[in-house]
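Structure request: Outer membrane protein assembly factor BamD, Rubellimicrobium rubrum.
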Amino acid sequence: MARGRGRAGLWAAMALALSACGGRGDGFRESGALDTLTPEQIYIQGESLLESGREDDAAFHFTEIERLYPYSEWAKRGLIMAAFAFHRDGAYEDARASAQRYLDFYPAEEDAAYAQYLLALSYYDQIDDVGRDQGLTFQALQALRTVIEVYPDSPYAADAMAKFDLAFDHLASKEMEIGRFYIAGGHYTAAVNRFRTVVEDYQTTRHTPEALYRLVEAYVALGLNAEAQTAGAILGTNFPTTSWYRDAYVLLTGRGLRPDVVGESWLTAIYRQVIRGEWI
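Returned structure:
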């Protein structure tokens, strides 16, 4: 019975605190508003606010636990929940800060894998359309790689790997977009540099066949027939059934050329790797 009365008292204290704040919960942020509550009471209020869609107020509660009861078990739990609440609220910088703080203080705890995953998501979910700066994409890749390599047996590793592939593809998309822009403007040497990056650094993405075709296109325009033929040969070896190879074949044969390895260039080295099965 005493235990039941204690639990009832806990909920009564919570109800009183919540009703006193009113509105959207601005009273929570008044100086000392939560100071008289236990860490468990603050945590439960935070959960309740989170469930009702008030992520910002929930995050405030979870972070207050650490301020009021530092280094406690509830502070540890509140920190990871703060990262989650901030992320769900779209406050990505705050989510990163909370997740990183958890990793700094509790690197060996069970929730460390989840903290690293939230840290990665806080970058990944900010990846915008392909025309924007890709700095966040690089940061997302680094954070996702950490999840995959440091926590390979965690329940977040598989999703991190899938998101890593998508972010990797996103970077290749950026290179392709810029390369196409250069092609359209007749800046073929600049275009070659972009498409080369895709072929050398992002060859596992879906953009490789088009990048090889664009190399054929750019090299033909530059009068570098040997490079154009070699790019066509790589395209035909790896992606013979694609429309990109058919277009490259038409482009080359229309100028009396054919897909073939000719001369020595960076593409020749790539082709040799293809034949040995080291690059697909």
